[in-house]
């Protein structure tokens, strides 16, 4: 994979792009220009990307007190018009919402306070960066970034302009989860050894769609935005973009972002990025157009020795067990399970006991209302899941994916994993392998695993080091289309 150098996005290039769609662009370099004057002032918000998750954003903001939805934004005209009709009925004349195809027109509006981003992943960072430059607060769906480098630029944009950024990892607003993590770090429990996340929910094949012209109601250039895609096919829009590397990050950084974020949240607070990581898995049985794995076991180790394990298992079968949760393995052999309310199985015990956990520190009101509270206070620290939390959690997933993407095929069998003396990893991979072999029915030695190398990473420079560094560092930054480039940090 070749990566073009990141050049400065000039006003001329942005205006040229916007001119083609009948809009304009103004970037305002003032700090937190969208600050709300008082607790009772109305927050004016726009939602970008309204086909799927964005519809939930619309509902959330319309239920929030004294919030006005002034724009909905989508490059698919039919989606946009359907949403506007629904909003008109639900608003009951309280306000008028305008539809736009280009988010930059909304950023031109000085009365706009915040933008809520629910687009495909490849748009998340660029919209966050441009909104920050325009002084608008940002609620951005998970993952914050599509690659490591653009996530860092989004972080620096938030720092420079002082806007609120809240990540769409809703469990950050759960005081029970926050309380457990505070307890784990208090010293009152044995030290955390492994934080384990599961994203095991059944999915199906997406088939294969031929290349062709995009539908007339879709502005394909705007939909692509930063993503370099050679040709359109119908699996990109509206949902299956998740399973292509140019636009998505697989289920590890889709649904899995929630559980991955929880796992990293449990790691000691002085740890930022892991220093070693590897992943293995495959796309079994479906024989479709998708690129990302439907089965994956991954692991990462932090400088202090704590580890994060992650398990993706999407292939449906008789007796399938959905697992979308987290587990915590402690150094004394105890295991904590649950979400919000917890049980602990101690070494030698026959059954788990209830673990009493005090409520943790979160901004109250639920995830949407917490964001509005932070916006009204003009206080980024009030965000449940701020830009740094988002960056660290998303990078963890990106690094695991990097290992997988650099992997080699080996026979599908229980000895496929290369875990050295990490007995815990071997045990947990063995459990996944047994399910794929006995439950799904993948034939041993006839199918293939993709086994990624163990990569090393420098948390300070955010670069891969050591063996495979050259190849892995190429995956830290995606190429971008000329008029939608992610700016360098110095250009923010």
TrEMBL record:
Keyword flag Cell division: no
Pfam family, one: GFO_IDH_MocA_C3
Organism superkingdom: Bacteria
Keyword Transmembrane helix (UniProt): no
InterPro entries: Gfo/Idh/MocA-like_OxRdtase_N, Gfo/Idh/MocA_oxidrdct_glycsds, GFO_IDH_MocA-like_dom, NAD(P)-bd_dom_sf, TAT_signal
GO molecular function: 4-carboxy-2-hydroxymuconate semialdehyde hemiacetal dehydrogenase activity; nucleotide binding
Enzyme class name: oxidoreductase
Domain Gfo/Idh/MocA-like oxidoreductase N-terminal, chain residue ranges per copy: 43-168
EC number: 1.1.1.312
Transmembrane segments: none
UniProt keyword list: Oxidoreductase
Domain GFO/IDH/MocA-like oxidoreductase: from-to ranges: 233-325
Protein name, UniProt field: 4-carboxy-2-hydroxymuconate-6-semialdehyde dehydrogenase
């Amino acid at each position: 994979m070749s990566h073009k150098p990141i050049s400065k996005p000039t006003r001329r290039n942005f205006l040229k792009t916007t001119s083609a769609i009948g809009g304009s662009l103004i970037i305002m370099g003032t700090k937190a220009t969208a600050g709300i004057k008082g607790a009772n002032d109305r927050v004016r918000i726009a939602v970008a990307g309204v086909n799927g998750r964005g519809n939930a954003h619309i509902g959330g903001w319309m239920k929030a007190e004294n919030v006005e939805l002034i724009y909905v934004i989508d490059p698919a005209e039919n989606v946009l018009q359907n949403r506007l009709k629904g909003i008109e009925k639900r608003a009951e004349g309280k306000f008028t919402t305008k539809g736009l195809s280009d988010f930059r027109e909304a950023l031109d509006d000085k009365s706009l306070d915040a933008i809520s981003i629910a687009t495909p992943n490849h748009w998340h960072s660029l919209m966050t960066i441009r909104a920050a430059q325009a002084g608008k607060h940002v609620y951005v769906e998970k993952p914050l970034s599509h690659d490591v480098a653009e996530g860092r630029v989004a972080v620096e944009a938030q720092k420079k302009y002082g806007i609120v950024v809240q990540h769409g990892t809703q469990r950050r607003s759960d005081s029970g989860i926050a309380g457990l993590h505070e307890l784990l770090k208090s010293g009152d429990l044995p030290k955390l050894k492994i934080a384990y996340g599961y994203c095991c929910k059944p999915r199906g094949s997406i088939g294969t769609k031929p290349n062709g012209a995009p539908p007339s109601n879709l502005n394909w250039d705007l939909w692509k935005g930063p993503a370099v895609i050679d040709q359109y096919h119908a699996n990109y829009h509206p949902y299956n973009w998740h399973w292509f590397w140019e636009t998505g990050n697989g289920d590890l950084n889709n649904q899995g972002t929630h559980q991955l974020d929880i796992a990293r949240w449990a790691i000691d607070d002085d740890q930022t990025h892991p220093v070693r990581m590897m992943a293995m898995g495959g796309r079994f049985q479906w024989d479709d157009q998708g690129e990302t794995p439907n089965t994956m076991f991954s692991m990462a180790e932090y400088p202090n020795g704590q580890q994060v394990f992650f398990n993706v298992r999407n292939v449906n079968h008789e007796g399938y067990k959905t697992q979308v949760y987290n587990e915590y393995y402690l150094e004394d052999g105890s295991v904590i399970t649950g979400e919000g309310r917890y049980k602990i199985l101690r070494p030698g015990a026959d059954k788990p006991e209830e673990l009493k956990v005090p409520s943790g520190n979160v901004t109250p009101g639920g995830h949407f209302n917490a964001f509005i509270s932070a916006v009204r206070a003009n206080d980024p620290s009030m965000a449940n899941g701020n830009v740094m939390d988002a960056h660290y959690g998303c990078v963890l997933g990106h690094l695991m994916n990097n290992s997988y993407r650099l992997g080699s095929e080996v026979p599908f069998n229980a000895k496929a994993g290369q875990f050295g003396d990490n007995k815990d990893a071997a045990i947990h991979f063995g459990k996944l392998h047994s399910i794929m072999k006995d439950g799904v029915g993948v034939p041993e030695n006839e199918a293939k695993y993709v086994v990624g190398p163990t990569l090393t990473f420098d948390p300070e420079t955010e670069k891969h080091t050591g063996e495979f560094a050259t190849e892995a560092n190429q995956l830290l930054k995606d190429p971008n289309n000329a008029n939608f480039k992610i700016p360098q940090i110095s250009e923010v």
